[in-house]
Design a protein that fits this description.
- About 55% of the residues lie in helices and about 15% in strands.
- The protein has about 450 residues and is α+β, with helices and mostly antiparallel strands.
- It has four domains: about 1-155, Beta-Lactamase; about 205-250; about 255-300; about 305-450, Histidine kinase-like ATPase, C-terminal domain (Heat Shock Protein 90), CATH 3.30.565.
- A hairpin with a 2-residue loop joins strand 11 (about 435-440) and strand 12 (about 445-450).
- The chain is rod-shaped, with a radius of gyration of 48 Å.
- The two termini are about 40 Å apart.
- Keywords: Coiled coil, Kinase, Membrane, Phosphoprotein, Transferase, Transmembrane, Transmembrane helix, Two-component regulatory system.
- It holds the Pfam family HATPase_c.
- It is an enzyme of class 2 (transferase).
- It is found in: Membrane.
Length: about 450
């Protein structure tokens, strides 16, 4: 179990890390999109405002001339609402005529487009970052209009700090969430692994505990438990079959050896040797029938023959089987009846006929003279039910659950004269068709029912 737990821990760690990485990356991408979008929006709005203001000042220059433009710039520079606005008007030689900037930037040519740079404010002692645009006026004057980018840089820093805190919070929450979820999921998987380990150790009765939540893990555990019950049943049948084979075949094989020894004796009359040969042949035929039935059961349990499934009408099939057994029933003074509604389902027609034949043979073996064997077609929930009932002796109640097991024979019971494989084959065929086999005592009589999936 140590080796089984280590991979679970590794898988848990990988799942938590994957959850953390995925959440962090997704959050980082969202924050990056927000950051880029916000910056682009602010830059676009700033550029639109500056471009419009630059065009407006150029119009004032055309209407009022240089002095009118100087007065307009001075008014705007002193407006408290425009304290982030930056203006600069110089003559063609570069001398400052108006504005709140100290001097014209030496590397900027008027009309060179949108620029970002650092300039000294008039009366200031440090350069400030600005975003600006410039033009050359008709008289050779140079005009620059911009915005102080200090507030925007502070906004960028605040946004980046908030993004960092959001990433840290996302990291912590994803770690906690991933740990809680994996603890919930892997605790259930650990229960499954422990149960599987106990089963591997030989305890086939172990089952995965259900928590009653009805979630996917509970439904999976329920399905696995059904599978484990089926495995336990098959292993139990295999053990019982092996033990029964060893026990039940010992006597026929011993008798067969005695008959072969008798055949090799040269001092016995020819008639006795012929009789021994006939009895030996009968023993061999019996053994062949046993092995043939075992093969049929194994094939049905393995689902071999599903490739031959076809739409089967049960009423015509049952009628054909009853007609085949009608002469035998008449000899015994037993009546055979068929009733119920017809049903159509996908199945192996030959195997379904074999199953009904086994049920009829079992009923004919114990039905008293003058009685009736009833074959009924009906519904059992969402499945088709095929029932064979008679008025013969029943079986002990405690033996009913064991009737469908291989080699189960009950002294003085309805399975006394056979090898105990007929009903086992019926149950295997029913399971192959998605159904089940049940038996119960009537008052009086016995009923065997085979339910089939649709």
């Amino acid at each position: 179990m140590t080796r089984a737990r280590a991979p679970l821990r590794n898988a848990r760690t990988r799942l938590v890390l994957a959850s953390v990485v995925l959440s962090t990356v997704m959050t980082a991408l969202v924050l990056a999109v927000v950051y880029v979008t916000a910056n682009r929006t602010i830059a676009s709005e700033t550029r639109s405002v500056v471009t419009a203001e630059l065009a407006g000042l150029a119009d004032e220059y055309e209407r009022l001339g240089t002095l009118g433009l100087m007065r307009a710039i001075e008014r705007r520079s002193q407006d408290a609402a425009e304290r982030d606005a930056l203006y600069l008007l110089t003559d063609p030689a570069g001398r400052v005529l108006a504005g709140n900037l100290l001097r014209w930037p030496p590397d900027i040519e008027p009309g060179s487009g949108w620029v970002r740079l650092e300039l000294m404010r008039a009366g200031g002692d440090t350069a400030v970052p600005i975003s600006a645009a410039s033009i050359r006026l008709r008289g050779g004057e140079r005009l620059l209009v911009g915005r102080d980018a200090s507030a925007r840089q502070q906004f960028d820093r605040a946004l980046l700090q908030s993004a960092g805190l959001a990433l840290l919070a996302t990291l912590a929450l994803s770690l906690l969430t991933g740990w809680l979820l994996t603890r919930l999921v892997f605790s259930r998987l650990s229960e499954i692994a422990r149960t599987a380990g106990d089963i591997v150790s030989g305890d086939l009765s172990r089952r995965i505990p259900l928590r009653g939540t009805g979630d996917e893990l509970d439904r999976m555990a329920e399905t696995l438990n059904e599978m484990l019950e089926r495995i336990e049943e098959l292993v139990g049948n295999l053990r019982m079959t092996t033990n029964s084979l060893a026990h039940d075949l010992r006597s026929p094989l011993s008798r067969l050896r005695q008959r072969v020894e008798a055949l090799t004796a040269t001092d016995r009359p020819e008639s006795e040797r012929a009789a021994e040969a006939a009895r030996a042949q009968a023993e061999i035929d019996h053994l062949l029938r046993v092995f043939s039935r075992l093969t049929e059961i194994s094939r049905a349990e393995a689902g071999l023959g599903r490739d031959l499934f076809e739409p089967v009408e049960l009423e015509p099939l049952a009628r054909d089987v009853l007609e085949f057994y009608e002469p035998v029933a008449q000899e015994q003074g037993v009546a055979l009846t068929l009733s119920g509604e017809d049903a159509r389902l996908p199945g192996n027609k030959a195997l379904l006929a074999q199953a009904l034949s086994n049920l009829l043979e079992n009923a004919l073996r114990y039905a008293p003279d003058g009685s009736t064997i009833r074959v009924t077609l009906g519904r059992a929930g969402d499945r088709v039910a095929l029932t064979v009932s008679d008025s013969g002796p029943g079986v002990p109640e405690e033996a009913l659950p064991r009737l469908s097991r291989p080699f189960v024979t009950l002294d003085d019971s309805r399975t006394e004269q056979n090898s105990g494989l007929g009903l086992a084959l019926v149950a295997a065929i029913a399971r192959m068709h998605g159904g089940s086999f049940t038996a119960r005592n009537l008052d009086p009589g016995f009923e065997a029912q085979m339910t089939l999936g649709r």
